[in-house]
Amino acid sequence: MRWLVVRNRSLVIASDGDTWLTPPDGRAGPAHTLLALKPGQRLWLPSTHCGQQEQVPVAVLALWERGHQEPWYLGSDLTGAEMIEILYRWRIRAEPGYRDEKSGIILRQWGDPHQLRAVLRLHRLLLANFLLHRLTALTSQLAQHGLPQG
What we know:
- By secondary structure, the chain is an alpha+beta fold.
- Helices cover 39% and strands 21% of the residues.
- The protein has 4 helices and 6 strands.
- The protein has a 6-stranded antiparallel sheet.
- Strand 4 and strand 5 form a beta hairpin.
């Protein structure tokens, strides 16, 4: 996280409940202890520090949606809780595609009816997938910075 902050790169990163936080009130401990959320709750800490040793300054959005098994702890250098949530939700939407690519779902074996047999079809599928991911990234960027004036 510090690597991105030092290079002036904006970030939204999810962490688990064991991530060490130090809010402005001086308390310190794991997120799940300090920010004891119940389903349906959200908490915005615009100025806190993450990590036991490095103490990276971040804003933290903690939210636990009803129906989810655990809360999200989102750290960012952005200043708005709404933008942090929107950007992370966009990332989550793209995640299943990345997981499928890594798991080899495209090249299944053993007589799977969804198996691709032609290299050209695989190429087209990968190209379409790349373009979809790029469109998602551009849309996310527009959502963050707005449309150009002019």
